[in-house]
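Thought: the user wants the 3D structure for the chain below. I'll pass the sequence to the structure tool as-is, report back what it returns, then summarize two notable features.
Action: structure_tool
Action Input:
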Amino acid sequence: MRPFSTRVTRPTPAERVRSILAAAHSMTVVSDGRHREVHLLDGTGPMGHIHLHDPSEESHAGGAARIPVRLEFTDIAPTPVRERLRARVTLTGLLPAPYEPEAATSICMEFGQALLEDADGRSHITLEELHATDIDPMASCEASMLTHLVDGHSELVPLLLRLVRPRPERDMVRALPVALDRYGITLRLEHPDGHQDVRLPFPTPVTDIDQAAPRMHALLAAARRSSHPNRLLT
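Observation:
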């Protein structure tokens, strides 16, 4: 039997930022020293309300005064893993004054900086990178798919563990899915003194949400095969 591929393909920082923004239902707006929580419940995500444009472009504010604003987003794992905070995204820029986030339906923001902070460190993303990146097709359904896996098919998680190389340590106390993206699924292996995240890549990346189930089935099939090697080839 051919060994399961250890090649790990993961989203770029720009992909992660685009997907976090697309899936977010709330954000913290910081301006004039005030922090305001804004909840967006119409399903469009914040980028359906905020258009980012380059400072070199002609101002969309028509010469009106502008104020510095910071938009903060948090990416929380939908499953009950340890340390559920997966990432923070911060956008800075200028908005026309006065700006009332609770009342605004659409606003044009002069882009300043995009910062992603996660387990890999800090990454600065340019506006060009954001505009050139597609939203992960899994972003809008990741939470529901992972909670469905944990709540309705928890027996499949130990099956997926068969693909982890090197094999999990004997002191592992729990394994749960912590993330799902177009490239694969990430499992969090929890130990008494910490945790480890391992990625299981799909055979090929998902380009449409309809491909998600077949990709997961391919991983599960590979896991089952790993327990039943073809002895004629050994």
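Final Answer: Structure generated. Residues 1-6 have pLDDT under 50 and may be disordered. The beta strands are 26-31, 34-39, 50-53, 66-76, 85-96, 107-118, 121-125, 174-181, 184-191, 194-201.
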